[in-house]
Structures are given as structure tokens and as C-alpha cells.
Inverse folding.
């Protein structure tokens, strides 16, 4: 029976990962229109529910805390108690299939992590990391639906554009910085970029989240005050309000971070700073979303996650000038 399914989806990661996962959930909802979808995710990413109505409930699981094994047992207990019909889980860890089997859910879909996953899962799906992340996640539901949702879709209506505007969101998550994952240029470059755009006659808006406080403050010491510059930091109270602001901008410039994926959903012309991460996996093939990269010819690039868990000391891949960024904006 297609309708009325109770589906548990599991995806641990940051808010960007959850936005990548939305096409998977959207296709499930198209296939099973009367289904009830619960998404198990990390607490830091629960605001994704504000962007969509395909997620009926969320179940926070703090898998990266000191009590991660207790949290996993909590998830298993929850899954058994709620009598789900189907579970779909991202993650390539070989223990994922064991966890799904322990839930007692009849239909279990996850990535193929070896012989055990082939035994314990209803279908162990081949993991193809060499593609856009939305497509990688969407492969999980290929055994149960012929629907194909290519890009994230969010419940934020199309916004009226503010003429001649460039919105800048410089930040990345504080967790990334704490872990040594440097993925963007410094505040000095952002400030200089804003000044160059103002000289070109652009109206520049600056936004950021709670993690970006230090960066924003440094930028504001560099930017030359004028009528065409407006600081929106602190004015967007949640992800949905940020999405609305991104939708109003003619052009968006950002780092490899969650706002990028919101911009993809809002179909705003976007330029993204890329250094050690792989733009081919993190942005769709589209004229609306373009990478800005250094001409460093590093033989290891992209290296973050592919070859190393933290970025290198030299960071030649992020030696991108403000002029190089500003020149992209017509």
C-alpha cells in the first residue's frame, strides 16, 4: 500500500547536509503522498524543518556528543516504539546497517558498506560520491521510487528582487573552524570586496549568522560607510528569513556553507568561494551557481575530506583577491 506509510529518515550532519537531503525526502513524499516522514538528525540542524513541509516530525540525536552510544540506543528504542514501515539512512559507516536492523523496521535502505549491509538491508545501495551531493543522497530511494528531484526545494515563495543588489554572507560554521576546516577567505578580503563593489555602484547587503560575529565586526571596520551599504547582520532571525533575503538579492556571494544551498533552492545567481573542498560535489551544474577559485594549481586540490580531515597550513587554494571576486559581478 503506497499511502499511509510511516517513514523514518536518518541523516546526520550540518544544516547544509539536511538541505542536500531534501530532494530525497521530496521524492519519497511524491511516491507516498499520505506518508508521515520523521527525520532523525543532529540538534544543530533542526531548523531545516522551517524550510519545508515534507518533514512531519524531527527526532534530534546528538551523535557527536560524549554520550553518542546512548543517543544511538535512544534512536533504536524510538524507532521500535513508533512502528515505522520504512527507514532510509545516509552514512557509509559499516555499523549503519546493524543499527537499521536493530530498529526492527521491515523495509531498510542504506548504502552498501560490505557483505553485512547486503544481508541486513532490504537494499544496499551503491554509494557514488563522485556526483552532486543531492544526487548521491537521492540514490538511496532509487529502489522505491521513479521520481527524481534534482535540487532542494523549500517553502519560501519567490521574492521581488531589490535592483542592483549584491548580498554577501561570508561565514562558515564555527564547528568547521574549530576543527581546522578553513574553507573561505578572511574578513579582510570580504571587506575589500564590499568596498570594490560599492565603487562599482552596487548596493551591497551584508548578512551573517551567530557564528559569524567576529568576522562581521572585522568587516565593518574595513567597509567605507555609504548609503549603498546596509548591514543585515542580526536582522535575519532564522533560516527562513535568510532565505527570503537571499531571494531578494540579484546576486549572492558566499562561502561553501549552508546559505549556499539555500541560494540554490531560491534560484538566486550565486558566486561561491571554494578552496579545499570540491565544487563539483557541492554545487549543481548550473549557470546560476558558479565557483570562485584560486589559480594555485595545487595537485592535491580538492583535498578536504578526500585526502585530509583538516586544511593545510599554506592554504594556497584560498589565496583569492578581493579584485578577483568583485570582477565576477557584472
Amino acid at each position: 500500500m503506497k499511502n499511509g506509510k510511516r517513514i523514518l529518515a536518518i541523516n546526520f550532519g550540518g544544516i547544509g547536509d539536511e538541505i542536500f537531503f531534501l530532494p530525497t525526502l521530496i521524492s519519497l513524499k511524491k511516491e507516498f503522498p499520505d506518508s508521515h516522514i520523521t527525520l532523525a538528525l543532529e540538534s544543530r540542524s533542526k531548523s531545516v524543518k522551517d524550510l519545508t513541509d515534507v518533514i512531519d516530525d524531527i527526532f534530534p540525536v546528538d551523535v557527536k556528543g560524549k554520550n553518542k552510544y546512548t543517543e544511538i540506543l535512544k534512536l533504536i528504542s524510538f524507532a521500535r516504539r513508533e512502528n515505522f514501515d520504512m527507514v532510509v539512512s545516509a552514512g557509509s559507516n559499516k555499523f549503519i546497517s546493524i543499527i537499521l536492523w536493530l530498529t526492527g523496521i521491515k523495509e531498510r535502505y542504506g548504502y552498501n558498506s560490505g557483505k553485512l549491509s547486503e544481508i541486513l538491508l532490504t537494499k544496499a545501495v551503491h554509494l557514488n560520491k563522485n556526483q552532486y551531493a543531492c544526487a548521491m543522497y537521492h540514490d538511496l530511494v532509487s529502489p522505491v521510487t521513479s521520481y527524481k528531484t534534482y535540487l532542494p526545494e523549500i517553502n519560501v515563495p519567490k521574492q521581488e528582487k531589490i535592483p542592483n543588489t549584491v548580498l554577501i554572507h561570508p561565514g562558515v560554521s564555527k564547528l568547521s573552524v574549530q576543527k581546522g576546516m578553513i574553507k573561505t577567505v578572511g574578513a579582510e578580503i570580504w571587506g575589500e570586496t564590499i568596498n570594490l563593489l560599492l565603487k562599482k555602484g552596487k548596493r551591497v547587503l551584508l548578512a551573517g549568522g551567530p557564528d559569524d560575529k567576529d568576522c562581521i565586526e572585522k568587516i565593518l571596520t574595513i567597509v567605507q560607510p555609504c548609503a549603498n551599504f546596509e548591514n543585515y547582520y542580526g536582522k535575519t532571525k532564522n533560516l527562513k528569513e535568510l532565505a527570503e533575503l537571499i531571494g531578494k538579492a540579484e546576486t549572492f556571494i558566499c562561502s561553501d556553507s549552508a546559505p549556499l544551498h539555500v541560494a540554490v533552492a531560491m534560484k538566486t545567481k550565486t558566486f561561491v568561494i571554494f578552496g579545499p573542498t570540491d565544487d563539483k560535489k557541492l554545487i549543481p551544474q548550473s549557470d546560476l551557481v558558479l565557483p570562485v577559485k584560486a589559480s594555485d594549481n595545487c595537485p592535491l586540490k580538492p583535498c578536504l575530506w578526500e585526502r585530509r580531515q583538516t586544511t593545510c597550513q599554506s592554504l594556497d587554494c584560498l589565496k583569492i583577491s578581493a579584485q578577483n571576486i568583485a570582477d565576477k559581478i557584472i
Notes: The chain has twelve helices and twelve strands. The chain has a mean pLDDT of 94. The chain has two domains: 6-141, 165-326. The two ends are 53 Å apart (CA to CA).
